[in-house]
Sequence to fold (805 residues):
Amino acid sequence: MKKSHKFAIAGAVIFLTIVALIYTAFKQSSVYYMTVPELKGKGESVIGQGLRASGQVKEGTISYDSEKLILNFDIFETGTPTEAIHVIYKGIKPDSFKADVQVILEGKYSPQESLFKATILLVKCPSRYEGQTPPPGYKYGKPTEGGKV
Amino acid sequence: MIDLGRFSLAFSFLVSLYVVFASLVGVLKSDLRFVTSARRGIYAVFFLSSISVAVLLNSFLTDNFHVRYVSHYSEISLPTYYKITGLWAGQEGSLLFWIWGLAIAMAMVAFQNRKERDHRFLPYAYAILMVIYAFFAILASFVTNPFDLFPANQIPPDGNGLNPMLQTYGMIFHPPALLWGYVGFSIPFAFAMAALITKELDPLWIKKTRRWTIFSWTLLGLGNVLGSEWAYAELGWGGYWAWDPVENASFIPWLTASAYLHSVMIQERRGMLKVWNMFLIVATFALTIFGTFLVRSGVLQSVHDFGVSEMGPYFLTFMFVTLAAAFYLIYYRWNDLKSDNQLESFLSRESTFLLNNVILLALAFATLWGTMFPLISEMVTGEKITVGPPFFNQVNTPLFLVLLIILGICPLIGWRKATAENLRKNFILPGVLTIAAAVALIAFGMSHVYAILFFVFSVFVTVTIYMEFHRGVRARKKLAGEGVLNALGSLLWKNKRRYGGYLIHAGIVMVFVGITGSSAFNVEETQTLGAGEGMKIRDYTLRYEKIYFHRESNYDAATAVLTVLKDGKEQGTIEPEKRRYDKYAEEPTSEVALDRSLKEDLFVILASIHEGDRVTIRAIINPLINWYWIGGIVAFFGGLYVLLPEYKRKEEAGAL
Fold:
């Protein structure tokens, strides 16, 4: 066999291995990113699927057991507070977690109970690294809105 | 005063346009006077941008809250050294800092080459660099100007203060290292493009920019390590690397730059891989621009967001124009980029370098793919699909392992074609020790397969690096009749590039050891405790004694005191803290308490405080993690060592 052929074959093998590696990892660990209405609209198809959801924490629904570290609350898509789903998260309540903040959850959803079991809970700060509360008496410069997600 | 800063910035933009014009006229008309004038223009740009930076710095130091940017990132009670970091704390300032870095680099390049008359690629390189400068100067002057002022009747009495998460020593070094690491790659990129334009494709452009490449690569690597140390010690989530888009944005160009560093050596020695090297430097440069874009545009969710800005389209346009022009040039000179030699054998240093390149690129591609996928899938299917750390870990871990193995094999294999004899001789010692290490680890009961592999091959690489030093010293002892220490000294001094490189490799092995230990064997425990109660974590017990509240210069703090017991014996106390900064009362922050040692870290966070002074404590044991930072520092010094002036005598200079 010609030398250049050998190198071509070796190259192809390496390339395919890498592609296969990326493909399988992707199959196993990709998660769908959904809003609350999207999640509700999906029905049974989301059972068992890794999901990431975002929404606003509903006032008056938060309960936290600080001994067992279990956090319960409802989230809804901003604007449609009646369409809420319930969330259970086992872990520490983040410092900035409170009613009306935007959160990102990762975990699984069961449509029968409208229940999201979250393994990850992140609080979205609209401007984490920006100075955000302007002192009273002057107008803040350019509006910095939260991320578009 | 502020007007001076704004004016210098805008004026530097005009001068940069003049430099582009003068260099091009100079080279096209072969008129050195224009080139000389262009060079002076570069100095002027450096001078002007320095004035801008000085003015902004002065505004921070004098608490001039008339300046919007200063009022956003500083306050009167902020310690002075954090006021200085305000320069790069936000969008506008860090952009100014970026272009200042570029101006410094350009001035140095112009100075280094001030006597150069023969190479037509220099004026082109100046022109290209100045186009880059002009682009960023437009952004800094017209889109996000750091010198924007409040109307005179609305000057706030105090600033908003620096975000508490940025008030840490990491803030002093991490952003400048990353930003200037990014900036530095402009130089090899500009030279590469200039070489393509003028067809001066001998390795001279590589030699002329080698130091810049290594310098930028070293800084970018340091920036990444410092960033993860910061995340670890400050952000308090227990980890140090989350495959966050912005982390990836600075990691990906580092990977392609690592590939470039290695493959240009093949071009220098063997005249091969010319197209590939062009591709790598273009990719690296484009990725640094892309990284800057990711951080600033807000298109992806990230902890590093500077907030949404209108800069996205500018960056994308600039990046696409750059890529299109660069690829056109490569295509245009395709025939002049043919290899002088062919690969001769699988068992040659060239092919290990090539494999190293492929793996580094695969890492870069997989990471980029995972980072960009949410955007791509939303554009294509309308559904947002994301991948998290599990994806990156699953793909990148085996690739890293291969990389580590190559790190050990490479120095054992000669250039061109290795003989069986050569292989047997070189592989026996490392092979035996590696197998011994594997047996020992398994005998000790280690069952984590990846961990065993990473540890074992770390031993392998360490032995091969040791052998390289040993062999060099022995040869010198024989040849020059020197003692061991003298021999080692002159070996290191006379072959900086080679042994600095091994020092970097040794650092990288330590990094691998640190990552493996802390990710395979970390233990975590969370519990809510009342005074006097204890929690167990592995062989440690943490006994909660008390909590006290105190007031510091610009924040209120609550500190929990815990006694650490190991196997029942008292080791001292550890005091995690919760802070509430005046200017950020809505976002309390956790101050991690860390008990560091080479063996492992005890990482304790005061997660929350409840009624009756009960506290929730989160504790993590991170084995071997400090080797990560130590390795990063070793690699950094290895990089600096390579940058020292080369030893001159030709016959002595060892070949790499």
About this structure: The radius of gyration of chain A is 22 Å.
